[in-house]
Amino acid sequence: MSITDTLKKTSFDRNDIIRLLVSTDTQEIELIRKEAEDVLLTQCGSEVFYRGLIEFSNVCTCDCLYCGIRKSNTGVKRYTLSGNEMVSAAVWCAEQGYGSVVLQSGERRDAHFVELVESVVKEIKSQTVSQVLPHGLGITLCCGEQSSEVYKRWFSAGAHRYLLRIESSAPELFSTIHPPSQRLESRIECLRSLKEIGFQVGTGVMIGLPGQSVEHLADDILFFRDLDVDMIGMGPYIVHSDTPMKSHLHYYNEKKEWVFQKSLLMIAATRLVLRDVNIAATTALQTMKHDGREQGLRFGANVIMPQLTPQEVRENYLLYEGKPCLDESAEQCRFCLQNRVQSVDRVVGFNKWGDSKHWTRRNLRTEP
Ligand code: SAH
To answer: How many Å lie between the centroid of ligand 1 and the Cα of residue 67?
Structure first.
């Protein structure tokens, strides 16, 4: 089927999605990009929403085979920010008009950690209420798999979005990149539980994993659709040389261009299939190409996560190598990003939570 015919469809099946993802012709890709951008503009508008990213701890009990801060990587200098440090970064974020913050960390389930997150969420909420943000900053958590009791506590404290990537929805791929103790089913359980509790739920995958095909990627999009998620964060898999997957470095270098192109097509295809969800243009895209995030926006993304992690610990949160902006202050990051957003004819949605339209429609609620 020609790409024009595929793009005319109002509902896409697996073959249609594969058809989108296999495109390599420049003109075809431009047609797909344009259609994804049109759907984004009609469904969500032209605003790009910021989520100030605070990577508050690299202490992790997991051993994901791809991740630079995995438990077994003894070369990592471990840190956990204090509650005060986290709250100050969030207050700065609110003062800049960013509207939302993401608290991300390695995975821990001890009582001390659970309490730290809970108290920081409450404190951020109480310190960021203002005329422009009557309900304080929007808070997204990205702290891995937890019990539903813990998720409930964090939700009651005031967090209203949660990101938990499925990494790959294909059982055979999931099990090759995680130790046997980590199970795809428990991650799906967590996503269901988060939704039931009332969170806006985000998930996503890494693109370019060894052995991953366009069929796998198409199935990932169908997984997002079937789970009816509100937000998507996905990006290229980038090799870290202190991980068991370092042997794929050669493969990665050879496939770099393919992976970057597939990452953009995944954003576009996800936009076409899921329509009104929020999609992030992730930092990993920028690691591959200096304008990777702007490209992500042009292919249908509408969320960007400016770095707010204090500079002195930022270099210790290396999930992968070549992470950009390590030496830029949050202040520099702010101006740099605004220029990047404007360069693709979009505007920053300052002082708004920028909730996923899919979620508001799903709940027939409007943003406060
Ligand atoms: N512990 C939290 C946060 C993990 S880090 C959680 O489990 O959700 C956030 C994301 O970084 C991960 O979900 C993973 O998709 C991504 N990531 C980790 N290592 C990566 C790598 N080498 N290349 C690209 N992305 C990576």
So the answer is: 6
